[in-house]
Design a protein that fits this description.
309 residues, alpha/beta, Rossmann fold, 2 domains, six-stranded mixed beta sheet, four-stranded antiparallel beta sheet, elongated
Length: 309
């Protein structure tokens, strides 16, 4: 059964006019769809338009033109319902230092009009592993706890979609791992997650679908697997018993990266050449292969290929 779209964006534009002669297209005819219960990654270099997009969804920035539909609600016709469908976790840590996590979540639920008997403060604190710090002042929490409290704040009205803007920017490896575990747990409970990130390896591990923004334009939108399949060039390292006489294009698409007395590193295009043919060629040159290691290109290669000038 196909999943429904929970976010639908059509021909979205945002133009900032500096003066009558100069304007900046922060977003140009952006089209994308995010499916229910998906983890969707929005990647792009600084200035690509990621934050502008999130700010339009959150109501902080007005779009210039285009259509935005969130959880079935049109942003122009039902802005309040759109806001209620989203939980937004900002990049900056902005917490009142004089409230404890429990009080902060209760207060935030009140802002959203959640009735006292419908609040799930204790459940949310457990979900982000802050139940033991429920009564501590926010100013006394560690950096990692503050990040988790930001996620908790976004969950008080139980939104079906959570958006995170660079959730692990500037945090250590252990904390990053902890945050991802929290997000996976949320996703398993049916929450759709949209995130922007600079950490491409992270997106590769976490996301079902990825959009790549560059200079306000969507240059890729596909499943993570399909994007990885688009990288055709593969690198192979052979450990040999002696130097081999081999040149660029000795075989179709073959490129020699380095060659010395006992090591040969080559690259080739997977759709034009099979590794068995390289092995067979080396065998015909009377050299023995002691070891083979391969590198299949990762999402970073796709990203660089699509965003380079």
């Amino acid at each position: 059964m196909s999943k429904k779209n929970v976010l639908y964006v059509k021909n979205l534009n945002k133009i900032y006019s500096k003066n009558s002669s100069k304007s900046i297209h922060a977003l140009s005819n952006l089209n994308l769809e995010v499916k229910e219960n998906e983890i969707f990654g929005l990647l792009g270099p600084n200035g690509a338009g990621k934050s502008t997009f999130i700010n339009i969804l959150s109501g902080l920035v007005n779009k210039t033109s285009g259509e935005v539909n969130v959880w079935g609600f049109d942003l122009d016709k039902n802005p309040r319902q759109v806001k209620a469908s989203l939980g937004i976790v900002p990049q900056e840590v902005n917490l009142d230092p004089f409230f404890n996590p429990k009080k902060l979540l209760e207060l935030h639920a009140g802002f959203y009009g959640v009735k006292k008997n419908e609040r799930i403060t204790e459940t949310i604190l457990k979900l982000v592993s802050l139940e033991n710090q429920a009564g501590s002042y926010s100013r006394n929490l560690s950096g990692g706890m503050k990040r988790r409290l930001l996620i908790a704040k976004a969950l008080v009205h139980q939104p079906p979609i959570v958006i995170l803007d660079e959730p692990t920017a500037g945090v250590d490896v252990e904390l990053r791992k902890n945050l991802w575990e929290n997000l996976k747990l949320l996703n398993e409970q049916g929450v759709t997650i949209i995130l922007t990130t600079h950490y491409i390896h992270e997106a590769e591990q976490m996301c079902d679908q990825i959009g790549i923004l560059n200079k306000g334009q969507l240059v890729a939108l596909d499943t993570t697997k399909n994007l990885l399949d688009k990288i055709q060039r593969k690198t192979v390292r052979f450990v040999l018993n002696s130097k081999v006489n081999i040149k660029d294009n000795s075989l179709n698409s073959l490129k020699i990266i380095s060659s010395n007395s006992n090591e040969l590193v080559v690259s080739y295009e997977k759709n034009k050449l099979e590794i068995e043919k390289i092995i067979s060629f080396l065998g015909s040159q009377n050299v023995k292969i002691n070891d083979i290691t391969t590198d299949d290109g990762d999402l970073e290669d796709v990203f660089i290929k699509l965003t380079k000038n």
